[in-house]
Amino acid sequence: MSGNSFVNSLPLYNKHFEHSITILFDFQSCLFKFVHRLNREVITVIKELFSLLAVFIALFLFGMVVMKAGLFQLGQASFQKILYRLTNSAWKGMIVGAIATAILQSSSAIIIMTVGLVATGLLTFRHSIGIILGANIGTTMTTELLALDLSMFIVPLLLIGLLSLLLPSTRAYSIGCLSFGLACIFIAMDGLETLAYPLASIPSIHSFFDLTNEHELLGIGIGTVLTAIIQSSTATTAIAMGFMSDNVLTLQAGIAIMLGANIGTCVTAYLASIGSGRSAKLVAYANIWLNVFGVLIFIPLIGWLSSFASSLTSSPMMQLAHASLIFNVLCSIIMLPLVTYFAKFVEWLHVKEV
């Protein structure tokens, strides 16, 4: 190409260059708009998912409160009498605590009753330790129930609950609370299972779950903090079950969260003991140390517990429920012969604080 031809073709090259630049800027502008729109859509979806998660957790807790209200109407006074009369030894206290908690569906409620009985002098601190051990076993019955697929009973339970609540009888009201509360719990469980996969598909949350699956101590910390906030170890375990059902969390991570939930649930009893006498505060401290020691013993055994629970059933939710039952039963059996020494340890450790 001659010099004159090159010079003459420059305007054409410039025109093509300008046109390419214009197309590039238009493409970049469209890309920015698309990304911005996509980011807004993603943020909206994330907000909706977390809003639904909060709704289902609230519904679960509401169901627990309503169910407990019905059960308390039926048996709170009688249980207080039973706790007072049949707890003159640690093993009797453990049996009574386990049965009472399985029926009332709340270990915190039984421990708070125990704090009250000790505060009024109707029960000694050392006899209360057996009740705490039993309450830890009894609360696993709720977890076993949640692991069952009872979604087919949601509509009948709702109908029975609503109809019973309309009746003037106190017993009918209690049955209505129990039925309606159970229905709410099962609805919440279905919702948590449904949300597990969409939440886990968000990259940052998926990375967080990966960390939880890899680091058991992180799982224990999550279980402790979450339970301390929502005041329900059962709800925390139920959330873990929902994520396990979609294979988002491994069984070992679920067990770690369950262990942490056992520590977090001690907050309720500790708050109940504030302002009480020396013995009542010792009950709260004993509850904390029993769960902390149990978790410390089982941290190295999480792998074994996971393998053993997996051999019992193929359902991830049932595996976690069985692991919770095994953990609490073994801890209680180990501690039962050592109740006297444990009581002395708690009294020695907290002598100045109480």
TrEMBL record:
Transmembrane listed as a keyword: yes
Places the protein is found: Cell membrane
Signal peptide segment: none
Keyword Manganese: no
Keywords: Cell membrane, Membrane, Transmembrane, Transmembrane helix
Topological type in the membrane: Multi-pass membrane protein
Protein name in the entry: Na/Pi symporter
Source organism per UniProt: Halalkalibacter alkalisediminis
Higher taxonomy: Bacteria, Bacillati, Bacillota, Bacilli, Bacillales
